[in-house]
Design a protein that fits this description.
alpha+beta; Thiol Ester Dehydrase, Chain A; 6-stranded antiparallel β-sheet; two-stranded antiparallel sheet; 16% helix
Amino acid sequence: MMAKIENNKNSKYFEDFSIGDKYLIPSRTQTSGIFSMFQAASGDNDPIHYDLEYCKKRGHPEMLAHGLQVMIQTAAGAGTFPSEVRDSLIGLIEISGKMLKPVYREDTLYPELIISNLISQNTTGVLEMKAAIYNQKKILVFLGFHKYLIKKKVINVSN
């Protein structure tokens, strides 16, 4: 037996998404402040991320951003996605990615998320998003994916 749930008309559910839907996340310049905040939050003490002279001695023109510092720029919460799934999002269930090019202090990053797969389940669905980040030179520096568990509008009710 199928039963319809009362759904918030302002929230999207699994059935409302399409492959190719795109979410742009506001750009962010990787300033010294962001480097410091990441170092404080992560506890990372590798001088490649905070000592300019150390970096230059190793052939880098600037301080190198930690890969996780780059990856977090794809956080869907920085864009419009959370407001669309306010009542249907169960949670982020998987994240992965590859650092393709170095990101340095003062690089500006342009993240985007694009729905690449929709996996229907009984009462929920898995929404897969390709996560890409380009720098100010339009060079792809990160490529990965997110998976979110999203409620469906219709659920099975068994007696």
